[in-house]
Amino acid sequence: MIDIAKSFPGGPQFRFEMLLRSAGTTVLFGASGSGKTTLLRMIAGLDSPGWGRIRFGDASWFDRDNDTSIETRHRRVGYVTQESALFPHLTVGENVGFGVIPDERPARVLEMLTLVGMADLAGRFPHELSGGQKQRVALARAVAPGPQLLLLDEPMSALDAMGRDSLRRDLARFLRAVALPAVLVTHDRTEALALGDDVVLIGEGRVLQQGPIAHVFSRPASVEAAHVVGIEAVIPARIMSRTAEGLVTLDASGVSLIALDPGDGIDLVFACIRADEVILEPGATPSSARNRLAATVTAIHQESPLMRIDLDCGFPFAAFITRVAQRELDLRPGSAVSAVIKAPGVHLVPRS
Amino acid sequence: MDFEALRVSLVLAAATSVCLLIIGLPLGYWLAFTRSRMRLIVEPIVALPLVLPPTVLGFCVLLALGPRSPLGQMIEKLTGHSFAFTFEGLLVASILYSLPFAVQPFATAFASVDPRLREAGACLGSSKAGIFFRVILPLSRRGVLAGVILSFAHTLGEFGVVLMVGGNIPGVTRTASIAIYDSVQALDYTAAFRTSAVLVLLSLGILTATSYLLGGLVVSAAKRR
C-alpha cells in the first residue's frame, strides 16, 4: 500500500496513491518525467517522500505521522536500474554474491547465475560484458540476497532493439522462476504488456488509473489515461442519439461516428481511437453505417516495423499499416483514402 | 651529511602519513557526503594550511601546545611533559600542516564514486560502513594512495613549521630541511649539497614510483579519481 507525496522546490509535485499486487508484476507506466522513477526510489527508501505512508504487508516502511522511515538496507528490496550499476572492481560472481552471507555465497551465486544463463561468465569483470549480459547479472545480484520485493527501473531501456527483445523474454521467464512481487517501471507498451499483470498509469505526477493491464490499456478511464497508454486520437464529441442495441451516434468535430454506448446517460465524451484499430481502404467513399470516413493523408512516418499514417477527416487521427499495404494503397501526403473503424474500436471516455 | 636529521625526517613523514590516513578517511568521507551546514566551516579550516604561512601555523601550534594554554596543560597532565619542542609536538604540527594534502584527495575520490553504486550496496543490505569498505574505498584507492604520498612528500619538505614547533634538537626534532639550513648558515656547502641531493632523489623516487603505480602523475591522479 502506497500513499505518498513529494514536491521538489520550484519543480514538479508528485502524489501517488496505489495498492500493489502481493504477487506478480505491477507495471508503473507513464511518459518520461512523470515521476515513475521517483516513486520507485521512494519505495526503495533511496528518496524520502515529503508526506504520506508506505506499507509493505504488515510492515510500515515510511510513515510521516510516526516519523518512521526504514533504511533501504532493512527493506529487503532488489533494485535494478537502467544502467546495471555493477561494482566495476568485482567480478560477476562477486557482484552477485555481494548481498549474500559468506556461508551461502558460492551455492547461491551459482544458482542465480545459472538462472540468468551466465554461470560460465562468473570470473569476468563488468567491463568485459555486453549491455544485456550486465543487466542479467544485475538481475541475479538483486535477487540473490532473497529480497521480498523486486524493483525494476526500465531495465531494458539502455539496450538496442535486439537486446531488448531477448532480455524481455528472459525477464518474463526469470520473474516466473523467482516468483517475487515485482514493480516494473517502463514507458514501452510492448514491455508492459509482455511482463505486467497489473498496471498503474502515471501522468503529471499522480496515478491516473490502475487495474489489470489488458483492461486498463484497452479501456482508459480518462483522456489523460488515454494519452498515457498511447491512444493516438482523442477527439471531443457529443452523443447525438442512442439505439436499443446499445450503440450511440456521435458528432465528433462535425464527423458522424458509431460507438458502443458508455451508459450512465453521458452525452459529452472524448472519442479515443487507437491507430491499430483503423483500417485503410482505397478511395474516399464515406458511409456512416460502418464508420467509413473519407480522410486525407497528412504525413507518413516509419515506426518500425509499421508505417504510421497521419490522417485528417475533420479531426486528426492515425493508422498503423504495413509497408506493403502502404505501397499497394499508393499512399503519400495529400492522398484521399477511406478509413474504417469498427464501433468497438471507438472507445468513449466521459468528459465534464 | 646529517643522517640523524634524515632519519627524523623520514620517521616524521611516515608517522604523519599514517596518522593522516586514520584521521583523513573519516574526515574525507564526511566532507564528501555530508549535507550539514558545518561543512561550510570545516572545509575552509581543513584547507587553511594551503594558504597560511607555515610560520603562522607553527606559532599557533606552539601557543596551543605550550604550558600556558589549557590544551598544553591538559597534555602535560596526561603525559607528564609538554609537547612543545618534542617529536610529538612536531607530529601534531605536521598533521595539521599536511591535512589538506590528504583529506582533499580522499574526499574528491570518495565523491567521484558513482552514487548508484552506493545505492546498489544499500539495496543489497550493506551498512554504511560496509559500503565504505567494500565499494567506496576500493574504487577510491588511487585517490587515497595519492593523498598518503602527497602528505608524506609534503612533510618531508616542511621547514617553517618544524622550525617554530620543533626547536632544532638533534636526533629528536632536527629534520633534514633544518639541517640543510644550518649547514648553509655555517657555510658548510658540501653537507648542505649532500643532504639536499638525498632529499631531491628521494622525492623524485617517490613521485616516479607513484606515477608508475597510479598510471599518471600524483596530482592528476588525485584529480582523476
Give me a quick take on this structure.
The complex is a heterodimer of chains A (352) and B (225). By secondary structure, chain A is an alpha+beta fold.
Can you walk through the features of this model?
The complex is a heterodimer of chains A (352) and B (225). Chain A has 352 residues and is α+β, with helices and mostly antiparallel strands. Chain A is built from ten helices and 21 strands. A six-stranded mixed beta sheet of chain A has the order 7-8-9-3-10-11, with helices on both faces. In chain A, strands 2-1-4-5-6 form a five-stranded antiparallel beta sheet, with no helix packed on it. In chain A, strand 1 and strand 2 (13-18) form a beta hairpin. Chain A is globular, with a radius of gyration of 24 Å. The mean pLDDT of chain A is 86. Chain B is mainly α and 225 residues long. Helices cover 79% and strands 0% of the residues of chain B. Chain B is built from twelve helices and no strands. Chain B has helices at residues 3-33, 39-51, 54-65, 70-79, 87-111, 115-123, 128-139, 141-156, 160-166, 176-185, 189-214, 218-224. In chain B, helix 1 runs antiparallel to helix 8 (141-156), helix 2 crosses helix 5 (87-111) and helix 5 (87-111) runs antiparallel to helix 8. The termini of chain B are far apart. The interface between A and B is medium-sized, with 22 and 16 residues.
